[in-house]
Amino acid sequence: MPALAFHHLSERISIMSETVQIVCPHCDARNRVPAERDAGAAKCGRCKAALFPGQPVDLTGERFQRHLAGETPLIVDFWASWCGPCKAMAPVFDKAAQALEPKARFIKIDVDAEPALAAQYGVRSIPALFLIKNGKVVAQHAGMADMTLLAKWVQG
Ligand SMILES: [Zn+2]
To answer: How many angstroms does the Cα of residue 61 sit away from the middle of ligand 1?
Structure first.
């Protein structure tokens, strides 16, 4: 019994120090990827899709909760189809995902579909951008953001 307990403990320590938990953008499965591996090339253990496809992912509020549990910093764009500045923001956000993954996950939330989530984050005007780490908002920006700001968020 003591040997088993020790084994269990050491296994937990190695998981904590050497792997990163990445939530799949396709099926929301939690994947543990070795920290030394290139996460940008990693595939989901469940659905086999790329964990970082180089593009933003549209999420519902329910799916978003699962992504909050991952260790990848999240950059969230609250938007709506009727919003002109949101349309201008979209290609910038696409380019940022392409350039900055796997250092961050780029997420789009449609405020018309998810008003409760938008209210939870205090979104009053759109586009509204948030940087979330370990489930907590660490930076936010109201209105259009450029690549420079998003790159700075990812590095900071
Ligand atoms: Zn998957």
So the answer is: 18
Let me know if 86 is a catalytic residue. Answer: yes
Domains and CATH numbers, the chain: 3-155 (3.40.30.10)
Average pLDDT of the segment spanning 137-154: 97
Does 24 participate in catalysis according to the annotation? Answer: no
- At residue 103, the pLDDT reads 96
The 3-state DSSP class for residue 76 equals strand
- Report yes or no: 146 and 92 within 8 Å, Cβ to Cβ: yes
pLDDT above 60: residue 132 = yes
Q: Which amino acid is at 80?
A: A
Q: Is 70 exposed, middle or buried (0-12, 13-18, 19+ CB in 10 A)?
A: buried
Q: State pLDDT tens for residues 77-110.
A: 999 999 999 999 999 999 999 999 999 999 999 9
In order of 45, 64, 119, the CA distances from 28 in angstroms are 11, 9, 23
Task: Read off the tokens for 97.
Answer: 């995902």
**Distance from the CA of 84 to the center of ligand 1, in angstroms?**
33
- Strand pairing class (57-58; 105-110): parallel
